[in-house]
Amino acid sequence: MTERIVIVGGGTGGTVLANRLVDDLGPELDAGDATVTLVTDSSDHVYKPTFLYVAFGKRSVHDANRPIRELLPREVDLVIDRVEGIDTDGKTLSLRDGDTLDYDRLVVATGATLVPEETPGLLEGGHHFYGPDGAEALRDELAEFTEGHLVLSVVGVPHMCPAAPLEFVLMVDDWLRQRGRREDVELTYTYPINRAHAIESIADWATPILEERNITLETFFNVESVDPDAQVVETMEGMQLDYDLLVAIPPHTGDPMVATAGLGDDGWVKVDKHTLEAAHADDVYAIGDAADVPTSKAGSVAHYEAGVVAARIASSVRNEPPTAVYDGKTVCFVETGMDEATFVEFEYGRQPVVREPSQAIHWSKLGYNETYWLTARGLL
Amino acid sequence: MQDEQHPDITVDARGATCPGPLMDLIGKVKTADAGTVIELQTEDNGSKKDVPEWVEKAGHTLLDTVDQGDYWSLYVRVE
């Protein structure tokens, strides 16, 4: 019997997984004992970290895209279509074009979507750098922004790339200084909880840096609405803050079909945090932003999770007990200006140590951005 | 231990590193209707201080904190 493995999603998790499965199941694929199909609604794979650099004119939106076919081995059957429903009892997917696709093992890698419209006024009043259009609009706005109050506000909880808000505010500080505009720009960074970052050791590291750079830190700040005409944000905690340029981390959501299929609330699939197997269906796994695990929604997480799920599926196909587990490994570069960066790595239950920022780490990050295309192919 | 609270939603934030228990709770509160009772399960000792502080600031109600042995359950009613 042929084991039909279907991956839904062509982001980092889905693409790395497809490559790893081909590596791990070479003989079974050759013998026709297994097939790997990847379904995605876009013919391009998108490397989202590029957008942070687009906002500063350092990269273009084009740099973020590659045809996904180029990143997949020939053994992977690529279907460009949108999965609109999952029947976990019948083990069938329904596709937008009307077709159905049966699976024996399913991996949900549907990622996260921005929903700025969930916060009243945010779409009209705020900018962001989490997508191509937003990053380009922010780039144009920043180019003209010479004076006033720039507010970076973390509105969405949870959100992709938890390091990015701090990176943006430290980069924009440096970027404005390099252009002689910093004296005329007031900078404020707001965060939902009572410190500068979710991870305490990063918050402890960042707080004196923000102070040193004259960036005001507002904590316990959860935006309820934005008044785009008056240029004021209002918070759940009853605070009002005026702005001239609002850069927000928008609210995120998962794919609605996750909830419809009974796999989890809010579009995030409820999974065992070590095996990544779905809690509410057999032979279903989730990886990347779609998986509800207690660590960051970050590319590195999707990458490591993909390796674990590939190994578990390969073991199961060969009738061996699956033993690979995900320990929460997360690695994040953190830009601290336009020419310096640091990085952190941690697992479930362990706080990272923040290394001294350096130009060498910044170059490593830029180098990683270039070699990412090898990562997506499962080579790095 | 038998809990007296009957939560509508349970947030399992045990072992949460990033973004952590309080962020997990805030994410749920933002999408919940008034009157919803949320149970936050946390192993993080800091949650016993952070959560009540935020709940009060944001105008919600902390109903109870229950020691479950190897984790705590904090019950929050969305107002």
The termini of chain A sit apart by 33 Å
Instruction: Characterize the largest beta sheet of chain A: strand count, sense, and whether it forms a barrel.
Output: 5 strands, parallel
Runs of chain B in which pLDDT lies below 50 for 5 or more consecutive residues are: none
> How much helix, percentage-wise, in residues of chain A?
25-40%
For the largest beta sheet of chain B, what order do the strands appear in spatially?
1-2-4-3
Structure described in brief:
The complex is a heterodimer of chains A (380) and B (79). Chain A is built from eleven helices and 23 strands.
Could you describe the 3D structure shown?
The complex is a heterodimer of chains A (380) and B (79). Chain A starts with a strand and ends with a helix. Chain A has helices at 12-24, 26-30, 50-54, 68-71, 122-125, 132-144, 164-178, 200-212, 256-260, 299-317, 359-376, and strands spanning 3-8, 34-40, 44-46, 65-67, 76-80, 83-87, 92-95, 100-102, 105-108, 113-114, 148-154, 185-190, 215-218, 223-227, 232-235, 240-242, 245-249, 252-253, 269-270, 284-286, 291-292, 330-335, 341-346. Chain A has eleven helices and 23 strands. With 79 residues, chain B is an alpha+beta fold. In chain B, a hairpin with a 4-residue loop joins strand 3 and strand 4 (72-77). The N and C termini of chain B lie far apart (27 Å). The interface between A and B is medium-sized, with 29 and 24 residues.
